[in-house]
Design goal:
Non-ribosomal Peptide Synthetase Peptidyl Carrier Protein, Chain A; globular; mainly alpha
C-alpha cells in the first residue's frame, strides 16, 4: 500500500498523503490531476478508469482499492 500511496502523492504533486485523505478537501484534486490519476492507473495497473469511477473516488483509499 505504501507504494500506491507514493504513486498517488507523486501524481497529485503533494509531498505526503494518507489513505483516509478526503479528495474533495484537497485543492490538488482538480481536473488535470484527475486525468493524471487515470493515466497513472492505466500505466501502473493496466486498468481503464471511467469518469464514473473518478466520481466514485471519495478518499485516497478508494483509489488504492481500485488499483488492486
Amino acid at each position: 500500500m505504501e507504494e500506491k500511496l507514493e504513486l498517488i502523492a507523486e501524481t497529485l504533486d503533494v509531498d505526503e498523503i494518507s489513505a483516509d485523505a478526503v479528495l474533495a478537501d484537497m485543492e490538488e484534486w482538480n481536473s488535470m490531476n484527475k486525468l493524471s490519476i487515470i493515466v497513472m492507473i492505466d500505466d501502473e495497473c493496466g486498468k481503464k478508469v471511467t469518469s464514473e469511477d473518478i466520481k466514485g473516488f471519495k478518499t485516497v483509499q478508494d483509489i488504492i482499492d481500485f488499483m488492486e
